[in-house]
Inverse folding.
């Protein structure tokens, strides 16, 4: 699947070819985690082999095309930061990524804002990074991205503010776009000896951090929480009142 630094040679096996083939097929079907951080990779190949892949780390390489990952439709986290990618695949590619939540694309070579907006087809994307890309310097970049990807909660380490998605709503400083209260560091941290379980734990931790910031700094969410609490208390009062007069 990958071109770049040659993989280490592995010892020969005394098993017959049929047994080896069957074992390799089972390994491929269970392949859910890939870490190729900083391995000087420069190309990916189309492959059905990794359709079961859930977490894929390909950061700090020389990759220029991510389209061969189109078969990896089970991805929940994809890290391609610090490569040389110029083009974001079209909406067909992203619409198949129904489980993708975290996408790291910062420090690449994306230029066209319209091209990046194809990410809007990714239905459950929560977090996206595009900073240190030429496109992030475009006028209105953040406004366009957060209003194109409706599921997005955070862009470039700042939670999306209500002010950004509700037109003409002036909010106090605490709730304004890029407020310090909306900062949330989601920079990917590569743990030594990383595996699927560790990466999944880290991913869930990042999502919980995002949700915590949203819960405390979104007037809409705060209001919804207050209304739900009010209605719940009202329902309990009604039930209690009925119970008291029944006896």
């Amino acid at each position: 699947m990958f071109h770049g630094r040659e993989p280490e040679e592995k010892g020969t096996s005394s098993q017959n070819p049929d047994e080896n083939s069957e074992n390799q097929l089972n390994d491929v079907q269970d392949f859910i985690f890939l870490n190729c951080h900083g391995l000087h990779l420069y190309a990916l190949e189309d492959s059905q082999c990794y359709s079961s892949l859930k977490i894929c780390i390909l950061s700090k390489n020389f990759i220029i095309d991510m389209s061969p990952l189109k078969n990896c439709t089970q991805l929940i986290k994809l890290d391609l930061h610090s490569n040389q990618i110029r083009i974001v695949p079209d909406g067909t590619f992203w619409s198949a990524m129904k489980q993708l939540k975290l996408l790291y694309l910062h420090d690449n070579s994306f230029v066209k804002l319209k091209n990046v907006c194809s990410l809007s087809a990714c239905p459950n994307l929560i977090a996206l990074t595009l900073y240190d890309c030429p496109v992030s310097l475009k006028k209105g970049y953040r406004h366009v991205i957060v209003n194109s990807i409706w599921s997005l909660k955070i862009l470039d380490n700042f939670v999306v503010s209500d002010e950004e998605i509700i037109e003409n709503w002036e909010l106090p400083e605490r709730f304004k776009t890029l407020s310090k209260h909306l900062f949330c560091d989601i920079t990917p941290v590569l743990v030594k000896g990383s595996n699927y379980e560790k990466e999944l734990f880290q991913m869930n931790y990042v999502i919980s951090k995002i949700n915590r910031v949203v819960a405390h700094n979104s007037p809409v969410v705060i209001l919804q929480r207050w209304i739900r609490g009010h209605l719940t208390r009202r329902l309990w009062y009604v039930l209690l009142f009925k119970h008291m007069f029944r006896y």
Remarks:
- The first helix runs from residue 17 to 29.
- The chain has seven helices and nine strands.
